[in-house]
Amino acid sequence: MKKKVIHYKALSPALTARLDEAFDLEYVDVKAPGGEARLRERLPEAQGLLGSSYKLTPELLDLAPRLEAIASVSVGFDSYDLPYLERRGILLCNTPDVLTESVADAAFALLLATARRIVELADWVRAGQWQASLGEAHFGCDVHGKTLGLVGMGRIGQAIARRAHLGFGMQVNYTAHAAKPEVDERFGARFLPLPELLASCDFLCITVPLSNETHHLLGAAELARLPAHAILINVSRGPVIDEAALIAALQEGRLRGAGLDVFDREPVAPDSPLLQLPNVVPTPHLGSATRETREAMARCAVDNLLAALGGQRPANLVNPQAWTRRE
Ligand code: 8YV
């Protein structure tokens, strides 16, 4: 008897076929009208789930008494209740590594676009405003040779540090749970406590996962430590920053600008003050959103689910305690 698997994120035909061969597979488009009701209806049979960008709450998962494993098509797992999953012995898998370089590319694209006012000036050209050579009023700021502060020095942080130091000759400073000597050596990086890091940077890039520890890690007091010429880049999760404090800092000219790929609530509200500021470059959580990378993430999630439901320990297990609980 094949195990029942529901995927709530569309997959390529090739990946759908792989799952179809191994499982009793069903696709439920939770974003479509009636999709959530359909998912609730089908959960009691499900032993595996695969998808992303949809909160699988304990209340919802209580409807799935047979559930053994969730394969998230994401590296972040802040939208899952880990203590609940551990209590139930439900394995949670994610897709690290495959998206590292794409997210780092996106972070640097945002950094350059914000520093050189690319979006603002492209719109200015489109509006027919380009009548003469650019003057002071339209100058951006240099990136090469400047100081980049990284909050978080995991896989994505290190990929950004590589671009900054080796590609743009930047001084890389960072804060993390502990110094990483190999990073210091490779990128000439300096480990600093958060307050010193903030005061020392021309650009600040956030790459920490969202957790209870990092929620509002950057509040009004922290943002006030940044130099007024600094540019903030966020490719992690919106709630790592106190968004109201960020808006105030930008509106009051206490920050040069911000490149934001993530927001407190997504999609960001059309009337958000962040979208009214010309020195903010907003992007729609596109960090991993390339054809190649999203296919690689989905492939990784499928591999994880095949392993988990086949009794093997998945390669990318977020909650090993749940595995131990099952043994
Ligand atoms: C999203 C991300 O998961 O991987 C993450 O944690 O934030 C993004 O890659 C993606 O938007 C959903 O597939």
Automatic annotation (TrEMBL):
Residues 108-287 form the D-isomer specific 2-hydroxyacid dehydrogenase NAD-binding domain. Residues 8-319 form the D-isomer specific 2-hydroxyacid dehydrogenase catalytic domain. Pfam families: 2-Hacid_dh, 2-Hacid_dh_C. Keywords: NAD, Oxidoreductase. GO terms for molecular function: glyoxylate reductase (NADPH) activity; hydroxypyruvate reductase [NAD(P)H] activity. SUPFAM superfamilies: Formate/glycerate dehydrogenase catalytic domain-like (SSF52283), NAD(P)-binding Rossmann-fold domains (SSF51735). It is an enzyme of class 1 (oxidoreductase). It comes from the Bacteria. Its EC number is 1.1.1.79, 1.1.1.81. InterPro entries: D-isomer_2-hydroxyacid_DH (IPR050223), D-isomer_2_OHA_DH_cat_dom (IPR006139), D-isomer_DH_NAD-bd (IPR006140), NAD(P)-bd_dom_sf (IPR036291). The keyword ATP-binding does not apply. Belongs to the D-isomer specific 2-hydroxyacid dehydrogenase family. PANTHER family: 2-HYDROXYACID DEHYDROGENASE-RELATED (PTHR10996), GLYOXYLATE_HYDROXYPYRUVATE REDUCTASE B (PTHR10996:SF283). This is Bifunctional glyoxylate/hydroxypyruvate reductase B.
